[in-house]
Amino acid sequence: MTQLLDLSLLNTKQSIQDQTDVLVAYVAEAWTALQTQQPLVQCITNSVAANYAANVLLAAGASPAMIDNPFEAESFTRISAALSINLGTPTSEQLQAMQISAQTAQQQNIPWVLDPVGYGPFLKWRSEMVDQLLAFQPTVIRGNASEISTLAGKQIETKGVDSTASSADVYHQAKTLLAQAKVIAISGESDYILSKQLDAVIQVNGGSHLQPKITATGCALGALIAAYSAVTNPVIAALSAHVHFAIAGQLAYARSQSTGSFNVAFMDHIHQMKAETIYEYADIQLIRTSA
Question: What global pTM score does this model have?
Answer without folding.
Answer: 0.91
